[in-house]
Amino acid sequence: MKKLTVFSIKSFGGPFVVTFFISMVMLIMQFTWVYIDDLMGKGLGVAVIIELMFYVSAGLIPLALPLAILLSSIMTLGNLAENNELTALKSSGLSLFRILRPLTQTVIVIATATFFFANYVIPVANLKWHTIIYDIQETKVGMLLTPGSYTKEIEGYAIKIKSGKDNTFKGITIHDYTNPNVLKTVKADSGIVYKGDDGKYLLFHLSNGIIHEELQAQAPVFTEQGQSFHPGGDFRPSRTTQFKAATYKMELVGFDLNKSKEELFKNDYEMLNVFQISAAKDSLQRRLDKMTTDFAKVSINKHPFNQSIGYENLRKVAPQNRDETKQIEQLQAIPEKVIKLSDLTKEERITAINNALVSARSSEKEAVDQEGMLDMLNTNYDLYQIEFHRKFALSGAIIVLFFVGAPLGAIIRKGGFGAPVVIAALLFMVYFVLFSVGQNLATSNDKILSPFWGMWLPTAVLIPIAAILMIAAANDFGVFDKKLWRYILTFGRRR
Question: Where are the transmembrane segments (predicted)?
Fold first, then answer.
């Protein structure tokens, strides 16, 4: 039996390592394609690229493992069946479940290690690579300026430099079009470019330059006879200012960064482990409960009748000061009988209706604002829930995909990178589509699925498929064999 264990693990280990490496390369290429605009042409050092890819690779490992497990299990059992080794093992009295026991234990160890990796390592890796991307995007502004050509990336400005690198340039010319009535041109011998601390403004620290401002031509004026003339003729007021040192500020429209600094987004749900997520969920739940309770109290106390009841109950349990007693007496002076609009004068009716409309509109606005705030908090709560279940569902998917791939490989009896790769790609596409659908349904406004079912949807769908394939492979049935379905419907009592 030890020989069978060693043989099974060796047969599984080789394809697993190869397929895992291929999966990682594919996922890294996908990441690179998404961030290609931020990485290309930035003059990044090799060390920065290696560090970024290292942290990104750590975050992609749980995504590559399911595909690697699926493909390697199909290839391993396919090779055993194709070489008649699986038939020999069955002929010696070993069931398929016994043959798969060493691989099952190995996959369970991998799934457990994946959970701990996703729980403790990936949050740190996500935090690190998000921070690196932020730093790279911070250098994006300096890379906008190309020597010898105008840059119009920043709305309202045309910037040209003669030479320079990094953030230091020479021969700077800035045409400012932000004010349509003024033509402004700034020229400087040299300057340093940097971004403000808030990231909203680009600052040029210029040396030895001039600022030339000229008003646009004024609109023509028409006389009573329909003739037009320009006031002041062709004269356009202008002025020129010289400076030795100046700071020119321009707003970075269109360059707002979606990422935040490390200390700002380190509490995001993607950067937390399950224990931190649980604490964050409890905090959000307390905030939701407090907001709901406070809004209910405010809504109730807006009506005099409810206020009078509240003050009356308060006076029974605690003594009041003079102001509170006076307020209670005023509230109790409200007439108990119903006042009809028909009993009021015209002016009183108009006043009452206007007051009611103002109160209703105010209440409606408060309710809408409260609903929006609660929806936002509930959405954040669901995101934490989704991330919490994702860490467990990923390990479960690894185990289930193994029990899908292993019997499938035994049924198709094909090893290598031919048919197994095609089948694994199709099955993984099904898994990925189910995963995406579950996540979208869990995060939709209608909340069609709970976060639990949204994350466990692929596993729930694949478990019956895995069970059917295991029964078929263990009893040498074809997937579309009538005997298989008769065996399943009769719970294996007759064949």
Answer: 12-36, 48-81, 102-122, 392-412, 419-441, 453-474
Map out the domains of the chain as residue ranges.
Answer: 2-139+383-489, 143-251, 279-380
Q: Three-state SS across the chain? A: CHHHHHHHHHHHHHHHHHHHHHHHHHHHHHHHHHCHHHHCCCCCCHHHHHHHHHHHHHHHHHHHHHHHHHHHHHHHHHHHHHCCHHHHHHHCCCCHHHHCHHHHHHHHHHHHHHHHHHHHHHHHHHHHHHHHHHHHHHCCCHHHCCECCEECCCCCEEEEECEEECCEEEEEEEEECCCCCEEEEEEEEEEEEEECCCCCEEEEEEEEEEEEEEECCCCCEECCCCCEECCCCCCCCEEEEEEEEEEEEEECCCCCCCCCCHHHHCCCHHHCCHHHHHHHHHHHHHHHHHHHHHHHHHHHHCCHHHHHHHHHHHHHHCCCCHHHHHHHHHHHCCCCCCCCHHHCCHHHHHHHHHHHHHHHHHHHHHHHHHHHHHHHHHHHHHHHHHHHHHHHHHHHHHHHHHHHHHHHHHHHCCCCCCHHHHHHHHHHHHHHHHHHHHHHHHHCCCCCCCHHHHHHHHHHHHHHHHHHHHHHHHCCCCCCCHHHHHHHHCCCCCC
| Across 256-285, average pLDDT | 67
% of residues, the chain, pLDDT over 90: 5
Instruction: Give me the pLDDT at residue 398, please.
Output: 92
